[in-house]
Specification:
The structure is a homotrimer of 211-residue chains. Chain A has 211 residues and is mainly α. Chain A has eight helices and no strands. In chain A, 55% of the residues are buried. Chains in contact: A-B, A-C, B-C.
Chain lengths: 211, 211, 211
């Protein structure tokens, strides 16, 4: 459980925050924003999903009060600010870290909701909000349609992993192994989707035939 | 009161959720989003206003925990995904259902705020947030200026209906008839605005004369 | 402290609300929105930051329940609606009032968070959210990248003023003079940034030289 392995989960969380903040900072640099804009986009991307989760769960957001999370996001923001061109050469590293962030945020968000007594459906939706909320805020602030709505298979593996975790929790299984297994599943499917360009289905085109 | 006629009000609520989700899904299809994007826009449009309401009222959002609401939104999302071209031919039906959603969300939101002890002004503002919040989120995510800020008379009848409901509540009148009457008023004025293309006033143009 | 000088702080608050609402209403008029769009943008700009602050602090938002704040925002909305061209001729006045709003919202937000027991870091972040949140919502709804992310030194003086206030509070200094001093600092630096066009630094451009 979360409470019994805080160090492992904090480590994963910080890695996710760093990766998401980096992605937010890079978007800001590409948009030509100044140092404050870069930091805001870095912090919103990294912390926004967790703040939304805590607001919905009616607890005080840790994303604003835990200095380790905030400091990590700000550090990543400065990396993006100072080394955007260097970082962009390592696009694969950033995408890998982003997949890791997706996996850890999804499982951490779902778990927190379950532990606060949320039913399974709500827990999975809250997990999803944690995992994709920050990225959606980043894209809305940057003035583009959120990537998660358009991109290759991104949220669907997260949803599946969260559902597995909620099912295990409902069945009374609370081991760290299950949590890490679900995170690994999300990460693995996301990486595979990137590698083989898996797409979520698009709406059927209307037939142009006269009938 | 809400508590004594839950079936009627749940029915109206589900109809509103379905209509709003359909409108969100259709916007997503038009934007060329994939199945996840369609579902997110459907759910955000249908449930976002209610979640914002509950966050502001400091209670756990039912829009995430009540599976009937979530399932209805997802169903409407699949209808939009699979039958967008069919649905768009029934634009009038969709607009009618949207007006119904506006009416039920406005009254349900105002009523919930009043019952949680909010003063009349706050209750009406919360009702408005319930009624137009989801649509605004839909348009922000889709990258357009929210329709409610530009369109024919939409929010103004809702405000009037909410004010009537709050006035009745403040005067000690708590009957279902009043609630349904206010909802019917909102619905009727909105339909009339659509039928006769009523517009809210626009700012005065500056006179170009030299004086 | 806030509680002992409510009249002074209410006055500053109302001035800030008026200034921010005016800026929101003017953006709406420029976008060609109708009277409802103008009012929504005025109210969201003036009250959105405070509502976000209260949601994060887990208290009922005063921005929705205090009729003096709402009424002031609506009044400013009507001024923007009716006299947009007149107001725009006084751009300097509007910018000055906006700087005043930034200063009062930053200190009021930080102070409220501190008094509710938030640690210093969280208090400053909440103060910043109060001060720039409404303007960011305004720009997102208007479909542009938020000005605060691009503009001349805006949020950085606010952050500095909030940090000074949090430091004084942590050191046990709770006088009104400190609060007003911090607000004056924010206001002064912001006005100087406008006067001499101070910019926050932009990311380094990549060198094009072969080395």
């Amino acid at each position: 459980m979360l409470a019994s392995h805080p160090a492992v989960l904090l480590g994963l969380d910080l890695l996710g925050v760093f990766a998401f903040a980096l992605s937010g900072g890079l978007v800001a640099v590409r948009k030509g924003l100044d140092v404050f804009g870069v930091q805001v986009l870095a912090c919103v991307t990294a912390l926004g999903g967790g703040v939304a989760r805590d607001v919905v769960l009616d607890v005080r957001p840790v994303g604003l009060s835990d200095w380790r999370l905030v400091l990590t996001a700000v550090l990543a923001g400065f990396v993006a600010f100072g080394y955007a061109h260097g970082v962009q050469r390592f696009a694969k590293v950033v995408l890998t870290m982003d997949a890791l962030g997706l996996a850890t945020f999804m499982t951490a968000g779902t778990l927190k909701a379950l532990e606060l007594g949320a039913p399974a459906l709500e827990a999975v939706l809250v997990g999803l909000m944690t995992a994709v909320g920050g990225g959606m805020m980043r894209d809305v602030l940057a003035g583009v349609v959120p990537e998660v709505l358009r991109t290759q298979l991104y949220a669907i593996p997260a949803l599946a992993g969260g559902a597995m975790l909620a099912a295990a929790h409902t069945a009374g299984v609370h081991s760290v192994a299950v949590t890490l297994g679900c995170a690994a599943f999300v990460f693995g499917v996301r990486m595979a989707a990137l590698r083989w360009r898996w797409q979520a289905p698009h709406p059927p085109r209307p037939s142009r035939s006269p009938s």
